[in-house]
C-alpha cells in the first residue's frame, strides 16, 4: 500500500512538473533543468507505466525536483519572490535544443541544472555563455568538455581537485605513516596515479609513497609485502572501479587485527551501498572526499526528512537535498544581488549544508580559464557510527 501511495504522489509530481512553477512579484527568473523523463511515463496526463512501476532511472530527477519544490516553499515563506520554471531535459516534445531556440529562456537570470549526459552540459553551457547567464551544474557528470566559459559553474569538483585536498589531508594527518598507493591496470588508474604523483612532486615536503599494482582478483598475499605491522598504514585507492575499491576494503577488514590501517577512497565511495553493511573499527578506518556533506543529525536535515516522509511515505536521497540546497542558496543570492557573479557565488552567509569555494579552473597547459569550479572538498570518515566530516 505504501508503495502505491508513493507512486501516486510522484505521478502527481510529474504532471505538475510539466506546467512549471511561477511566482508573482519582482521578476527574477530561474530555469531549473532536470531529467524527469515525463514523456516516457505519460500519455497526455495519463500515467502509462502502472501504479506499481516507477523505473529507477526516474528517481534521481524526481528527488531533485522535490527538493526544488520544498525550496520554493521556503523562499516564499521568507518573502523572496522568484519566477521558477522547471524543464524536463528528457522531454521528447521539447528537447534542450528546441527549448533554447524557442526563446523561452531569453529573460532568465539563473540556470540550475541536474545533468546526466555530457552533451546536455555542452548545449546549456554554450547557451549560458552566449547570454551571460550563470549556469549552476549541481550533479555528475562534470565538465562535459566546457572551455573558456566563466558562466559555467561546476559544483561537483573534478578528480584533480579531490586529489589536491586528499593530499593535504594525508600530509596533515598521516605523513609519517606507511603510505601505499594501490591501483589496478587501466588507463583511468594511470591518470589517477599521475595526479597524486604530480601533486607530491610539487609539494614543498613530498611524502614517501610506495606503489603497488594489484590484479582484479588480488589476495591479501599480494598486499602484505607493502604493509607494516610496526606502524600505522595509509592505503590510497587510485581507482574509480567500485569492485576494486570494495575488495581492497574487504581484504584489509579481514586482516585488520594485525595492521592499523586507514584507506583513502574515491569520491564515488559515498554511494557504495555495500559499506553500509560492513563492520569497521578494530584498526580499520575509511575516509573519502566529497564536495557535499549532508549531516544527518543537523536540525534542518531532520526537519526536511520529517516533511518528506509525511508527504511521500519514504526517505529522501541526497538528490533531494541537492535540489533543495541549490535553489534555496543560489536563489537567495540572486534575490539579494540581482546579478550572480563570481564575487557572490562563494558567499556562504546563507549556507544551508555545504560551503562553496568557487574559483576558476584553468588549463594546465596555458593557464587559460576553462570554467568555474567548487574547490571546497569535505573529507569524510565512515565508521559504525555513520559518516562524519574530519579536518
Which short descriptors sum up this protein?
single chain; 391 residues; alpha/beta; Rossmann fold; seven-stranded mixed sheet; 12 helices; 16 strands
Explain the overall architecture.
This protein has 391 residues and is an alpha/beta fold. Helix content is 37%, strand content 20%. The protein folds into 2 domains: 2-157 and 296-379, Rossmann fold; 159-290, Response regulator (Rossmann fold, 3-Layer(aba) Sandwich), CATH 3.40.50.2300. It has helices spanning 2-19, 38-41, 59-77, 96-101, 118-131, 159-173, 187-201, 220-223, 242-254, 299-312, 318-337, 342-345, and strands at 29-34, 42-43, 46-47, 83-88, 110-113, 135-137, 152-154, 178-184, 209-214, 233-237, 261-264, 284-290, 358-362, 369-374, 378-383, 386-390. Strands 4-1-5-6-7-14-13 form a 7-stranded mixed beta sheet. It has a 7-stranded mixed beta sheet with strand order 9-8-10-11-12-15-16, with helices on both faces.
- How many individual domains? 2
The fraction of residues assigned to DSSP E strands is: 15-25%
CATH architecture of the largest domain: 3-Layer(aba) Sandwich
Please mark out the parts with pLDDT under 50 across 5 or more consecutive residues, or reply none: none
Strand order of the largest sheet: 4-1-5-6-7-14-13
Count of helical regions: 12
CATH topology annotation of the largest domain:
Rossmann fold
The helix-and-strand class reads alpha/beta
How far do the termini sit from each other?
45 Å
- The shape is globular
Number of strands: 16
